[in-house]
Write a structure and sequence with these properties.
With about 240 residues, the protein is an alpha+beta fold. It has helices spanning about 5-10, 25-30, 30-45, 55-70, 75-90, 100-115, 120-130, 140-155, 170-175, 205-225, and strands at about 180-185, 190-200, 230-235, 235-240. About 55% of the residues lie in helices and about 10% in strands. Strand 1 (about 180-185) and strand 2 (about 190-200) form a beta hairpin. The longest helix has 21 residues, at about 205-225. The site of one fe (ii) ion (FE2) has 4 residues, from loops.
Length: about 240
């Protein structure tokens, strides 16, 4: 129901209702609540030694999720739902790493309710957040699919917080070795492609697969939900 229709029915001013469409993520991301959620989540992960999961990661996942659905011709409402879910997908880490997917869905529910986002939109966003780490790799919805691919594709040097190379574990090393990662959609071939530049003097392409095999399988299943294949191009060479 549009804002105008609702006002006409109730005869009273609608104070907080946020229509999900272009600009909705910009609005939500600028709220004080969003800043606290992202900051607390990233602080928790920093304390336990995880890679960067702050505003940079949030923006990248939102951008990739948006790009995928836009390229596939989805309507602006669905595209914005994916961008919002992508931006907030990791805020559950504010309560701890374990079950951060489910926790995040409910933290974001509070934010969405504050701005009177309708139930169905809330559920689509919550489903994507709650399933972005799904161990069975189940992907039931296209918004979830876009968020999963966006999240699993954000591997990058700048996510490594550890500054002492000598103490890098394999995760640090593989992340540090990736100097560029991006996602594009080949609409003709119906394929979503993860493009990587890997500095092979730091980590081998094999190590990348060793660490990220599950991510790749999850991305492939998510791409299938969108009616697409999933491919990887590393240093200009097609790997999958
Ligand atoms: Fe996560
Ligand atoms: Fe993430």
């Amino acid at each position: 129901m549009s804002k105008i229709k609702l006002q006409a029915l109730t005869g009273s001013a609608v104070k907080n209702r946020l229509e999900i469409g272009p600009g909705a993520l910009d609005f939500l991301a600028s709220t004080p609540e969003a800043k606290v959620l992202l900051d607390r989540a990233d602080r928790y992960l920093e304390a336990i030694g995880y890679t960067e999961h702050g505003v940079r990661h949030a923006k990248v996942v939102a951008k990739f999720a948006r790009r995928i659905l836009e390229a596939l011709g989805k309507d602006p409402h669905t595209v914005e739902l994916a961008a919002i879910a992508g931006y907030f997908h990791d805020v559950g880490n504010a309560l701890g790493r374990q079950h951060h997917d489910l926790a995040g869905a409910f933290l974001v529910k509070d934010l969405l309710m504050q701005y009177e986002v309708p139930l169905e939109d809330r559920l689509i966003i919550m489903e994507a957040i709650a399933n972005h780490e799904n161990e069975r790799l189940d992907v039931a919805d296209e918004v979830t699919a876009a968020v999963v691919i966006g999240d699993k594709s954000d591997v990058h040097r700048t996510r490594v917080r550890n500054t002492e190379f000598i103490t890098f574990d394999i995760h640090d090393r593989v992340n540090y070795a990736v100097t560029r990662s991006t996602v594009r959609v080949d609409i003709q071939k119906k394929e979503i492609i993860l493009e990587l530049e890997i500095d092979t003097s730091i980590s081998s392409v094999t190590e990348y697969f060793e660490i990220f095999l599950t991510r790749m399988l999850f991305s492939r299943k998510a791409a299938r939900r969108l009616g697409c294949g999933f491919g990887i191009l590393a240093n200009g060479v097609r790997l999958a």
